[in-house]
Amino acid sequence: MITEPSGAHEGDAWDVIVIGAGHAGCEAALAAARCGVSVALLTMSETAIAAMPCNPAIGGPGKGHLVREIDALGGVMGEAADAAAMQTKLLNTSKGPAVQALRVVADKAVYQAFVRRRLLAARDRITPVLGEARSITGVPGGPYRVGLDGGRQLIGTALILATGVYLRASTVIGDAWRQGGPGTEAAASYLSESLGQMGFSLGRFKTGTSPRIDFASVDLDRLVAEQSDDEPLWFSHKEQPPHPASGGFGHSCRPVCWRTATNSETHAIIEASFDRSPLLTGQIIGRGPRHCPSVEDKVARFPERSSHPIYLERESREGDTLYVLGLSTSLPRDVQAAMVASIAGLADARITAYGYAIEYDYVDPTQLHATMEAKRWLGLFFAGQVCGTSGYEEAAALGLVAGVNAARRVKGQPEVVFARSESYIGVLSSDLAVRGVSEPYRIMTARAEHRLHLRQTNADLRLTAWGRELGIVGEERYRVLLDRRERLQTTRALLQQVSVRPGGASAGLLAARGTVPLREPVPAAELLARPEIQYRDLLAIVPSLPRLNHDDQHEVAADAKYGGYIAQQERLLARQRRRQDIQLRHGIDYRAMAGLSESGRERLCAAQPLSMAEAMLVPGISAADVAVLEAVTQSSGQDGCRADGGGGSSDDGRLR
Amino acid sequence: MSDQRWDPASTIGAVATPPGRSGIGVVRLSGTAALQVAARVFRPGDATASGKVPPVILRRHRAMIHGHLVDPKDGAAVDDALLLVMPGPGSYTGEDVVEFHCHGSPTVLSAVLEACLALGVRIAEPGEFSLRAVRNGRFDLTQAEAVLHLVNAQTTAAAKLAVAHLDGALGRELAAMSAKLLVIVAPLEAAIDFPDDEVAVPDRRAIAGQISDALGEVSALADSGRIGRRKVEGAVVTIAGPVNAGKSTLFNALLGQERAIVTPEAGTTRDVIEARLEIQGLAVTLRDTAGLRTPSGLAEEIGVRLARAAMDEADLILLVADASQADGWHRSSSMLPGKSGTAAGDVAVINVLNKCDLVSAASLAEALAQGATEPSLNPPVRVSAMTGAGLAMLREQIARHLTGGGGHDSAARLLTTVRQESAVRSAAEHLAAALEAIERDVPDDLLLVHIYSAMESLDEARGAWSPDLRLSVIEEVFARFCVGK
Q: What is the ipTM of this complex?
């Protein structure tokens, strides 16, 4: 599918150039294309497109929420993950309405094929280009010229860097260091130089991965198979057809994931090799993610534990490799072999690829706005690991933010900022741009102040209509939203109107669920409010209620059970929103703003927050500074702050 | 902002000592220009020297330098003085601070200040030095409040409390309470965000226990506000009881002077008479009231009404009975606020059995036995206001009641302002709501809302900044649990 740029593209000029075709790059290219601009998608190899170099899973707490939001805004990740799902699991079902999260084990090959098809379907707008970006030149505001290996040049009005871990990457296994990224790709070392010359400050992070083993060499009898949920669930909000995975779901399904664990022998092997670990001996200087510790790190930090869980996941139904989740490592090959062999079920396992650590350059994200645009290089955007994140879902979400904003920059439209109170995408992008990172950033539900509002089951209700206004959500998707809204409204009204009488079928149900019998007729909603009663229970005794899919049941039940809490949160949110949605223009001269503390001035000048909500996150800012800023913006109205117009953007539609 | 009054960019100055003549007087400056201004108005050495100390030199030293204050216009000496230099950020305000220690003549002090104003210094608003200290992170809010309390302290107890809070003791206590809640939150959050990682989450009973312990501490702290404020602001003690029980005699005896008119005639006192005194370091406003009986005449009727109002307003009532009257004990107990219907409330009461010098030990024992049948009554303090017997014990009892039984020896656990109290009270309410949520079996994500709200209220009490709360939770999760793949 790769097109070589040729004479047909004289000058090779595009509206938007995306460097890198991982999850960030693909989502960025697709989002920009949906906005109607032309895109060149540059990749060093065709096999890297939408590849999953780490474990074959998508979703989980926070991450699954992001996937739902990407889908609500017309992105591809949710549909691709649905198509590739080999196992689905709803996590945190007992921990509350807002933290339930879907995770799937995804067939890597199917996933990549799905995204490629989607790119291909957009070929009138997206042109894939094979090559390595070697240099970036240009002026703030664009256009930007990307020099490729072999001397070719691409010109873009806007440019999105989604280069993942490839900037000056080096991979490490034990004492073996190699320049280059995962797999066999060469390292994009030249780009780091270009970015340095442009004045970007770069940091160094580390990440890593686990060994892969041959499926046929594993003793499945000694492992515990992980079952898929009985009820298949979907990321995409689109009308959900029967699940494509053959064999269906639940216990009848062929397992793709097994559970085992490290043991004291494994730990002894690792401890004996501490002196050969590049991580523990300090040869690796990049800071690694605490949410993804290597096994040598876990053994070193928690010596009291004699076992850590290990999951074996098939990378593809057709392929023959298993991903060993929980065994991320950069220990030498012989140590990896010994520790794998020590694990139950893996005595004869054949390692097909060794685990490795990778060190890479990242761009300090506080040099970016929450739109992912560089503060001092307008028209230049970043997304994914290159600006300090980790994870497929985080990358894809930022790709969408960058893609939309790059297209809007090209079209002269106002930028789009995602509010923390409205989406995990907003939490992610403002955390990066305003707070910065000290390790590869992973989304967590604990980061969201408005967690109760940000449910995976209301992502479309929160975002799809807005996406429609922005022009990134198509007619079909929008129609699905309207239908759903109506369905929920009708059901809620029915639950209030229909009353359930004591005795008869209801008495049997209540007794079976172990809850007290009714004394008088009550609205069905009141029964649903009881912790023991689920929506599907009501179907048996209130035949007029519609059959609903999982998400709708969840929303309706959450309403009935925790409506008071949620309403209280929404009220609080509305109050805070009035406060936090105050927009701050580009180029406010904080140095001239009376009342700010000295450190507050410096930090606000550097951070250039776009809204009060962002200003409140700026590290080191005090409550007093925020109060001053509020007083100034209120007393002077929207236009009172001194602005030099440097951003050249208007405030319209900036916030959500 | 055209209003430059609170502009923190300007250098502020004020006479720091009280108005009027005194041995020494201090003019204080704070801000970026403080050192430059000092270099212009202060000349080191004796009157004949002409050198100046360049600001760059001053910046390097915390120093006290002898020299002369001069009028920058003509170089004429204004006063022989000491210059105290405290460069920021280690100073009180966090900015460059200088103090001129002059002779305490109002004329000299205003001349020095005028000279500084002429060089661009602005007169400080009341409290502005402390405001800058808070703004620049030198203080939390409880410390700033302590500065005010220390300056206004009228008793040793108030001063001791203020000094302890100035050191940040209360702020640390509030932070420690918040940290205890963090310990409850961390495993719940770790389990939510890393559901495969076998995080050991305490069961709901254990969590309820932890929250209930925290609630106990937070509530006790909220309750301490009443006592803390008494230490800072003083307390009102009202002497009440039937006519002719010797209330005014007791009033005079506690005061140590003949302030109230005393006659053998029942119903002598009509007005509420008030006096200030110090009892064991506490500022006490003592009130003597009209005896409570069915009034005979308009003046006495008003007096009785005033007496009941004074009982309502009191932090403590001394309910006086006449030991020489057979039914004295009973008569006074019927006048307790709760029983008389004039006040609901839980005002503390000390029963005082007066005129003990007039009765035999036998009849005293009888009176006490009679009192013991009234379960609502505390054992009385036996005194003779006339001879002074038992007064020391009474003073001790008063102090003990006002300071909550002496359990509050730790200043860190005493709130001193209504602002602190309402924030801590709201933290307690959120924790109570959390316990109720556990009772109703709500899931973790909803329960956590209450705990976070409580933590935010505790932060608010010390003026800390809550947006970083979630970051501290995440730090705790990674520090304590082996999570992630």
A: 0.90
